[in-house]
Amino acid sequence: MEYGYKLSAEGFGPQELVRQAVLAEASGFDFVEISDHYHPWLDSQGHSPFAWTVLGAIAASTDAIGLATGVTCPTVRYHPAIVAQAAATLALVSDGRFTLGVGSGERLNEHVVGRGFPAVAERQAMLREALEIIRLLWQGGYRSYRGEYLDLEDARVFDLPDELPVIAVAAGGPDAAELAAELGDGLFGTEPKPELLDAYRGAGGDGPTYGEVGLAWAETEDAAVQAAFESSRWSLTGWKVMSELPNPANFEAASTVVRPEDVAAAMPCGPDAAKHLEAIREYERVGYDHVVLTNSGPDPDGFMDFFARELRPALGG
To answer: Per the database record, which ranges form the Luciferase-like domain (predicted)?
Structure first.
């Protein structure tokens, strides 16, 4: 079992994210994961640096902690050839510590290049083609590909690591979980749904499984709830909303119906370690072997200390 720390690229600038990653390594986390967005969810969050630059700086500033994208969409804003090259380079500069998390994306980040954002079925078909292109390029040599949605022309990734990065495919349903088993090396989920793990394993998937658990630590429950409400209320709107809205202003509007008490009911908030441990163990019980802690509390340093003192010893480590 490994435990990761989610770097909130929507809430902090690039230098601060690097600092937090260094602190996460010192606090006993096994890996850090970063979202790969163009926009934050809410204007009030105020940040959204380029994830790949931040990851490169983290690789240079740390020694052993794992790195992951959670997750990259390799179909619209990026062509998969660029992702294949970026991931291979990051694997090299991190000495093999990088995991490529991929998914079908959100309109919030992908529409910015003016190519629109397709419907769900088309997004999944594009993700399949993107994975095929990445795998093709990682075989080495010059490669071409003709798909229904994506093409590749006479391209080669020159710098490839001896051990290729793990590709963890995000899944919200059984079809995507089966795609993760077929073309990925692992599964990425955001809910403790046993049917996702069952679909992945049933389709032959035998790689690592990453699950994100939301929580909010602060010295008081009220402070944790308020911070989570201010920064993370958008997460209660549901995936069908989260994947389709184009700008932070839309998320501000969509989340006006969310109340602080709704946030408190959706995630453990406050200083009680037992509540946080139970949320983590729920993911462990359904079969996740990599659990990512997404802290919406107001004090990252305090949370790191809390993890080192109370959570990590109780979890075994």
So the answer is: 8-290
d(CA 273, CA 275): 5
The pairing of strands 209-215 and 290-295 is parallel
What residue numbers bound the domain in which 49 lies?
Answer: 2-315
C-alpha dihedral sign at 128, 76, 90, 290:
negative
pLDDT in tens, 95-151: 999 999 999 999 999 999 999 999 999 999 999 999 999 999 999 999 999 999 999
* Number of structural domains the chain divides into: 1
Among residues 126, 137, 158, the alpha carbon closest in space to that of 145 is found at 137
Which of 43, 117, 41 lies closest to 73 in space, CA to CA? 117
- pTM for the full predicted model: 0.97
At 140-183, the pLDDT tens digits run: 999 999 999 999 999 999 999 999 999 999 999 999 999 999 99
First to last CA, the chain: 10
Which residues are part of the catalytic machinery? 37, 106
Helix %, strand %, coil % of the chain (to 5): 50, 15, 35
